[in-house]
Amino acid sequence: MKNMAFQKVGDYIVLVHNAMAPTDEEWDEWMQHYTYESILIITDGGAPTASQRKRLKMRVDELRASPSYVPNRKEPKVATVTASSFVRGVLTALRWFYHDAYAAFPPDHINQALTYLDVPPRYHIAMKTAVQTLRLALKKAKAGGSSKAMPDEG
């Protein structure tokens, strides 16, 4: 069963979680694809485990240490859209430590999340479509099918 799916849209990534934490296999696949872009996360409550968050930090450190990293470029942001007030509270606390890198939004504020990420309007429909496509893929996987990361869009 898949608990997470992702898709690249332009220079952004859409990452969708169901209510469960991703498996380590899913997280490892995600880490292979993540190249330090801004991310729109939609979650029904699922989130990475402590060890998965540690691997994410290691991946970000690895990308920052690579010769292609540009130190003065704009740092990527993460906007999380969730109904969970607990998750939104955790992300608000992270903002205290990571400045404006993280922000949380309730489900009816996806447009504000896209604005926060500086997503150009030409990508808004593609980003919202990706959310729906990924949600459907996770639902199908839960019903017994299988779901992989979706191809790049844009």
Strand ordering within the main sheet: 1-2-3-4-5
- Total number of β-strand segments? 5
Note the beta-strand portion.
Answer: 15-25%
- Model regions low in confidence, pLDDT < 50 over at least 5 residues: none
DSSP helix fraction: 40-55%
Biggest β-sheet, characterized? 5 strands, mixed
For the termini, the CA-CA separation is 28 Å
Query: What's the tally of helices?
Result: 5
Shape: globular
Structural Rg? 15 Å
Order of helices and strands: EEHEHEHEHH
- Mean pLDDT reading: 85
Structural class per helix/strand content?
Answer: alpha/beta
List keywords for this structure.
single chain, globular, 43% helix, 154 residues, alpha/beta, five-stranded mixed sheet
Explain this structure to me?
- It is a single chain.
- The chain has 154 residues and is α/β, with parallel strands linked by helices.
- The protein is built from five helices and five strands, in the order E-E-H-E-H-E-H-E-H-H.
- Strands 1-2-3-4-5 form a five-stranded mixed β-sheet, with helices on both faces.
- Helix 2 links the parallel strand 3 and strand 4.
- The longest helix has 19 residues, at 124-142.
- It starts with a strand and ends in a 12-residue tail after the last helix.
What layout of secondary structure does this protein have?
Elements (H helix, E strand, L loop, with lengths): L3 E6 L2 E6 L6 H10 L4 E6 L6 H16 L12 E5 L2 H14 L3 E4 L4 H7 L7 H19 L12
Parallel strand pairs: 2-3, 3-4, 4-5
Antiparallel strand pairs: 1-2
Helix pairs in contact: 1-2
